[in-house]
Amino acid sequence: MHFPGNHSAQAVRDGLLASLSSLSAHIHTSLTWDQGVEMALHKSFSKDANMDVYLCDRASPWQRGSNENTNGLLRQYFPKGTDLSTQTLPELGRVTHEFNNRPRKFLNLANPGELVSKLLFNT
């Protein structure tokens, strides 16, 4: 999601709800987030999305390992300190497409895009 200049709790809640509306309900059952103030409306989000939300303990990145791994991979596109609010939606879309179609060793060199497509269209 792109939040140039506004990543308030309300903007994040609304953005998450909008993003989920484009996904099949059977592929999202829970969300794990850190203790950031942007998730202050997590109870409202959880109710409206019909999704469990888990908040990690402070300073416990291992509690959301796949997120931390993803952040590390994204640093190849956006080095630490990059102001993402200056990125355009087309550029973010290009990176998202490339990132989701990148083979992953732990997926036996499949890519997330392939696997999500199979899940969505073969169930």
UniProtKB/TrEMBL annotation:
Residues 1-120 form the Integrase catalytic domain. PROSITE patterns: INTEGRASE, TRANSPOSASE_IS30. It comes from the Bacteria. Belongs to the transposase IS30 family. Required for the transposition of the insertion element. This is IS30 family transposase. It comes from Cryobacterium flavum. The lineage of its organism: Bacteria, Bacillati, Actinomycetota, Actinomycetes, Micrococcales.
